[in-house]
């Protein structure tokens, strides 16, 4: 009883502190920075994939420098019935896959180290450094890529730009800072809706910019898209310095204050990244935190494996996509996601806060992966996209559930485990997926999607267990309670009958 009172007092104190933070700052102030970051994160792989394919096409003599920028190896192959060109087209895909492996392998270590150190010190240094540093890294990255395009530099500069981006934290650190800020500025009741709306805002960046990139690269070069991404990140940096408040710590508009905060970094908080899972909590909260985190880790593996290979896969046989067709398909996928996110944000909290939503979303995404691997025509791809679109709101619901199971000082720590895998996933999982694709492309290119679907079954089982197990226990408890009540009633009836018979005998 005393423990319950302490827990209730702690919950009320947390809620009151959350209310005070919400009055001071609005959670949506961070959205412009998230939108800019995700615009770069969405368009950058598409542009780089198209650029690398084009460079290798020229290198192997499939196309020349005056060919349209969007011409793919598949298109070049279909234009001439030449077995030599067929072999060269496959070699182009393998070469791009190998370059992706090099970029991911070398860039993984600095990215993971930066994420762990900054993430573990998030509560010590504040949220703003986690938002500002990735913007600086992106600015340097796009300057290098612009020079690569204009001066036709060697492939090594792809790798260097990737390493620098990872050293400054990349998109993973920025999203961690943004999620921590949103969590600081919302209550438990508001958080699911805020996370869903944040996902919908992110989805917008995957529609219009992609369509613009698709139309532009079909007829023009790569300079303008990279220059636009550079300009957007410069604007985001200025916005952060002037308008973005600090939800945990002192507010300052000076960039030197950010570096001053970085001096507070210590290695000791890194232990908290795993200790947060070892703390004994009320009820089954500890087990739920571990299982929810494991589900997110597995989902990140599936998602990054898919994202690292699907543009290259669509460019090859039998689908023969160009950059515009890829942009239209991806935009259709995220348009559906926006519609679903808006509907769910207006729905009753009982549904959006339930784990039935992640269970359904993961199940449909596994089906989507299988259909993607089987697709031989464009309409079949769109069917797969329609089936799997609910998956992209799953992460928001899982993150919201996690924040409700921990204290307000553990918000950042509980996401670091998934963030480490998210950062590693964008590199290591990309390496493995590209290696599998390079080995199986001549057997059946869609094998990688079947492997990802098998991995996706594991988080499906976890979410199903977390949702259905409490329901089963509750259903078992109700008959027991009914039986106990019936037993008490029967006992009372027997006693009353016995007393009645004694009274009658005495009378």
> Structural class of the helices, strands and pairings?
mainly alpha
What sequence of helices (H) and strands (E) makes up the elements? HHHHHHHHHHHHHHHHHHHHH
- Which descriptor suits the 3D outline? globular
Return residue spans where pLDDT drops below 50 for at least 5 consecutive residues.
Answer: 1-23, 76-80, 502-507
Number of strands: 0
Main sheet? Answer: none
Approximately how much beta-strand content do the residues carry? Answer: under 5%
Q: Mean of the pLDDT scores?
A: 77
| Helical amount | over 70%
Q: Count of helical segments?
A: 21
Radius of gyration: 27 Å
Terminal Cα span: 50 Å
Short summary of the structure?
The chain is 79% helix and 0% strand. With 507 residues, the protein is mostly helical. The longest helix is centred in the last third of the chain and has 60 residues, at 447-506.
Question: What topology does this entry show?
Answer:
Layout: H1 2-24, H2 31-60, H3 73-79, H4 83-120, H5 122-125, H6 128-151, H7 156-167, H8 170-184, H9 188-204, H10 208-219, H11 223-242, H12 255-262, H13 272-275, H14 285-315, H15 323-346, H16 349-352, H17 356-374, H18 378-388, H19 394-403, H20 411-440, H21 447-506
Helix pairs in contact: 2-4, 2-8, 2-9, 2-10, 2-11, 3-4, 4-7, 4-8, 4-20, 6-7, 6-8, 6-11, 8-20, 9-15, 9-19, 10-15, 14-19, 14-20, 14-21, 15-18, 17-18, 17-19, 17-21
Tell me about this structure.
There is one protein chain. It is built from 21 helices and no strands. It is globular and about 70 Å long. Helices cover 79% and strands 0% of the residues. α6 packs antiparallel against α8. The chain is an all-alpha fold and 507 residues long. The N terminus and C terminus are likely disordered. The longest helix is centred in the C-terminal third of the chain and has 60 residues.
